[in-house]
Write a structure and sequence with these properties.
The chain is α/β, with parallel strands linked by helices and 456 residues long. It is 34% helix and 16% strand.
């Protein structure tokens, strides 16, 4: 028996010039064979590593028996977005990191198997059955992974759920932040359609906190509110030259590409097309930004990251794909100034070399600048991928919701805020984190909201 399958992918030389999905998915035979490796451990360690608690051994057992519908039914009991999670979840640091197989072989490819099952279900579409309504209206603010999860779980319990989305497309970070080559838009649309079949109502182009407030929602008859507004406020370095033309946040760059369809051939989207591009940062967003810049026609793309390859926070798969595509990684390097011409256009980025000292609060070794090691890189675009913080709109218009010093909404263990019948979760609480952790928060809050009404 083989030791973990290799996911078929587009060839690097081809995919670097298109936005089509890179990973092509397991074949049926690969998925079934991989499922047979599951030992069906009594204590199910893999389940403990899943933020939404999917019964992984059970779905793998159905997959092993080629009962693909049964496998999907098991997954969908816990996850409302299996086709999404199978593509973007960091399984290697969650469920797969606890797989018993890891001691003698590679862990089971749980994520690849989940994707296969979800894609099979989408190809053999069966409409979801709408539960009987209990008549209780719940508002969900934000249609990202946290909001969609809370909405789906509440709808399954019979609640009358309405999701309010500020943008003109549903999916939050799933559609505006993650590129088409990693998560195709039609996949998100399929998952949203299943939630609508459960009875979830979608309202787009409404900014709660601007056009309406949370108090307005209660006046309209909603009995509880879930805030899943994400973390869309980009961070910058505050170094000289950051206001030059050609400097932008990864958030803006990816949003323009995704929502304004720059990933389509010959699209006239107003997005910067750099010849030589530097992306500052080392997370998944940085990988998405550098690989998107390459696909938009950049001749040379750099990743500038102040720590070493070992500390790189991006998923290993995304890093390896970027290397294969020719991205130039400058590790132990940190920008100190952005250079420009007399018209305030970017002409380069001045960097300093770094060395690693003692661990800091994050547990990683703290980077220290090496005196006299400055050097310039010739670029015409600089993209800052340094993370994001929660949007302050809800905080500013709902003074009785407590926030912490970073702007994150303060919640208890069940996602309850300081305001009665208002819950929150995902990046709006934690700051930028993973899709699956946001889903876990939405799932937890749905349970708490249900308990709130049961006790009431």
């Amino acid at each position: 028996m083989s030791d973990r399958p290799v996911m078929p992918v587009q060839e690097p030389a081809v995919r670097a010039h298109n936005f089509n999905e890179v990973a092509l998915g397991l074949t049926e035979e690969q998925a079934v064979e991989e499922a047979t490796r599951c030992l069906n451990c009594r204590n199910k360690p893999c389940v403990q590593g899943c933020p939404v608690g999917i019964n992984i051994p059970e779905f793998l057992q159905h997959l092993k028996e080629r009962d693909f519908k049964g496998a999907y039914d098991v997954i969908s009991e816990s996850s409302n977005l299996p086709a999404v999670c199978g593509r973007v979840c960091p399984q290697e640091s969650q469920c797969e990191s606890l797989c018993t197989r890891r001691f003698k072989q590679k862990p089971i490819a749980i994520g690849m198997c989940e994707r296969f099952v979800a894609d099979w279900h989408n190809a053999h579409d069966e409409p979801a059955v709408k539960p009987e309504s209990n008549g209780i209206k719940v508002a969900v603010i934000g249609s990202g992974p946290s909001g969609l999860t809370a909405a789906g779980d509440l709808a399954k319990k019979g609640y009358d759920v309405t999701v309010f989305e500020a943008l003109h497309e549903i999916g939050g970070v799933l559609v505006y932040g993650i590129p088409e080559f990693r998560l195709p838009k039609y996949i998100v649309a399929k998952e949203v359609a299943k939630l609508e079949q459960l009875g979830v109502k979608i309202v787009k182009d409404v900014v709660i906190g601007r056009s309406e407030s949370i108090d307005d929602l209660f006046e309209q008859g909603f009995k509880a509110v879930y805030v899943g507004t994400g973390a869309g406020l980009p961070m910058f370095m505050k170094i000289p030259g950051e206001n030059y033309n050609g400097v932008l946040s990864a958030n803006e760059f990816l949003t323009r590409i995704n929502l304004m369809k720059a990933y389509r051939p010959n699209n006239a989207t107003p997005v910067v097309h750099g010849r030589k591009v530097a992306v500052v940062g080392g997370g998944n967003v940085a990988m998405d930004a550098c690989r998107s810049a390459l696909r938009l026609g950049a001749e040379h793309v750099y990743i500038i990251y102040r720590r070493s390859e070992e500390e790189l926070p991006a998923r290993r798969e995304e890093y390896e794909h970027a290397v294969e595509e020719g991205i130039d990684f400058r590790f132990l390097t940190n920008p100190v100034e952005i250079k420009g011409d007399e018209n305030f256009n970017v002409t380069g980025i001045r960097c300093v070399k770094m060395e690693l000292g003692e661990p800091d609060a994050s547990g990683r070794r703290r980077p220290i600048a090496i005196e006299g090691s400055e050097y310039d890189i010739d670029v015409d675009v600089v993209i800052m991928a340094l993370g994001t913080t929660p949007n302050p709109l809800i905080k500013n218009t709902t003074p009785d919701i407590e926030v912490n010093r970073r702007g994150g909404i303060v919640v208890d263990d069940g996602g309850k805020t300081s305001k009665d019948a208002v819950y929150a979760g995902g990046d709006a609480v934690t700051g930028a984190a993973t899709v699956i952790k946001a889903m876990g928060a939405g799932k937890l809050a749905a349970v708490s909201i249900d308990e709130y009404f049961q006790n009431k």
